[in-house]
Amino acid sequence: MDSATALALTIASGKEPIAVHFDYRQRTERKERESFGALCDFYAIASRYIIDLGFFAAIGASALTDRSIDIPQNVGKGIPITYVPFRNGIFLSIAAAIAEKEGASEIVIGAVEEDSSGYPDCRESFLRALESAIGLGTRETTKIAIAAPLVHLSKKQIVREALRLNVPLGLTWSCYQNEDKACGVCESCRLRLKGFALADSIDPIEYLL
Amino acid sequence: MDSATALALTIASGKEPIAVHFDYRQRTERKERESFGALCDFYAIASRYIIDLGFFAAIGASALTDRSIDIPQNVGKGIPITYVPFRNGIFLSIAAAIAEKEGASEIVIGAVEEDSSGYPDCRESFLRALESAIGLGTRETTKIAIAAPLVHLSKKQIVREALRLNVPLGLTWSCYQNEDKACGVCESCRLRLKGFALADSIDPIEYLL
After folding, report:
1. Is it the case that residue B209 has pLDDT exceeding 80?
2. For the segment B140-162, what is each residue's pLDDT rounded down to a tens digit?
3. Which runs of consecutive H residues, i.e. helices, occur in B52-102?
4. Which of A147, B18, B35, B145 has the most CB atoms less than 10 A away?
5. Cα–Cα distance between B30 and B33 in angstroms, integer?
6. pLDDT (0 to 100) of residue B148
7. Quick check: A133 and B133 CB within 8 A?
8. Cβ-based contacts of A101 with chain B (< 8 Å)
9. Alpha helices in chain A (DSSP H)
């Protein structure tokens, strides 16, 4: 939902996106890849990269990529077990390589800072630091900004933006656990459902509960 | 040679390394992986990661990863065609994830700034910026430094350090082009041979020319 809304905002501003999907062996990869394809089709994006990051399974250390760790239903304070070590750092570094090759001027990410799970790699301070590093680690002529249009929005505001932009929310997926019907109880489902409830709207995807 | 010397310096300082090899579909992957294994055996490093980055072939844009671009023999000014977009940014981001998972306090890289090919992702300014980004994008309790012990050394000084530390230089590989006998004429061979010549020493590996 966040990626799709960030994409819709990018297109609305007149830019031509290159779409990048990461297969990091997360539990819901099949469904997320299906959503990626459907969203690219919906927005008629021809330029697509599907990046295979099978090594995440070897690193593990997260409930999203290690099947021996259950997805929690209630998340306490601090960084939850669904945190994947430096995941967005890796995603953005690869996106920087693609952007440099393609001559793209911006990397767009649907990261959300406040109304989220508290992942350190979703913070704007991190994104700005990595943007500086990308500037120093690429050609002098390469200028790549990191845009995070949702980073300071609440989930309610994201749902409102998505509705305003007619994002096909039925094609998006947020559940950490399931691929057919969303579980409704994982942290990601809870945040999504809270956003729809506060925005006085109904989530079009199917839930188990 | 640079990685092996950085490794030897790390071991000499009493640290316990975890070794990481990246298969980014570079022309000399088979030989580099063999060198990686032989060096790990030599230094009795049990903890090893081999990270498959097949997507570099799809990004291309470098003579190291795109077979349709020849390896140049004479490199002019500016960044050469052997530059792989943001390669070290990607390598270091993945190393950061491994370090965070393993509880390691340092990432060691054999990057060389001055006496090198002029790759932007080998500059100390880049390494320090990425170190800051890694600090902001990982857990509060995670503290990962980037150590680049060779970054301001010349190739001559690197060869001297390697000899002082008894690095098994015959097990290392630098050639961009070949896997059996080094070509002797690519930029990487030239820099290596220059280092040995200025250090009044003989390179133990075999060359075609």
Report:
1. no
2. 999 999 999 999 999 999 999 99
3. 55-59, 87-102
4. B35
5. 5
6. 98
7. yes
8. 59-61, 85
9. 2-12, 29-42, 55-59, 87-102, 124-137, 155-164, 187-198
Name the residue facing B130 among A54, A79, A133 (closest C-beta): A133
Three-state DSSP at B22 gives: strand
Where do the H-state alpha helices sit in chain B?
2-12, 29-42, 55-59, 87-102, 124-137, 155-164, 187-198
β-bridge partners, A50: A21
The predicted-structure confidence for B115-139, as pLDDT tens digits, reads as follows 888 899 999 999 999 999 999 999 9
Instruction: Judge whether A195 and A158 are in contact, CB under 8 Å.
Output: yes
**What band does B105 get if pLDDT is binned at 50, 70 and 90?**
very high
Task: Among A93, A126, A138, select the one facing B136 at the smallest CB separation.
Answer: A126
The reply to whether residue A55 touches residue B94, judged by beta carbons under 8 angstroms, is yes
User: The domain at B2-198 falls in which architecture?
Assistant: 3-Layer(aba) Sandwich (3.40)
User: Could you give the CA distance from residue A173 to residue A110 in angstroms, rounded to a whole number?
Assistant: 13
Rounded CA gap, A170 and A204, in Å? 5
| A95 has pLDDT over 90 | yes
Q: What's the sign of the alpha-carbon dihedral A85, A87, A90, A93?
A: negative
State the average pLDDT for chain A: 95
Determine the Cα angle at A24 with ends A22 and A29, to 5°. Answer: 80
CATH ID of A2-155, from 3.40.50.2300, 3.30.465.60, 3.20.20.70, 3.40.50.620: 3.40.50.620
What's the pTM value of the predicted model, to 2 decimals? 0.94
- φ, ψ for residue A69 (rounded to 5)? -110, 120
Query: How many Å lie between the alpha carbon of B62 and the closest alpha carbon of chain A?
Result: 9
Do B133 and A98 lie within an 8 Å CB cutoff?
Answer: no
d(CA A80, CA A125): 20
Measured CB to CB, residues of chain A less than 8 Å from chain B are: 49, 51-55, 58-61, 79, 83-90, 92-94, 96-98, 100-101, 120-121, 123, 125-126, 129-130, 132-140
Q: Are the CB atoms for B148 and A145 separated by under 8 Å?
A: no
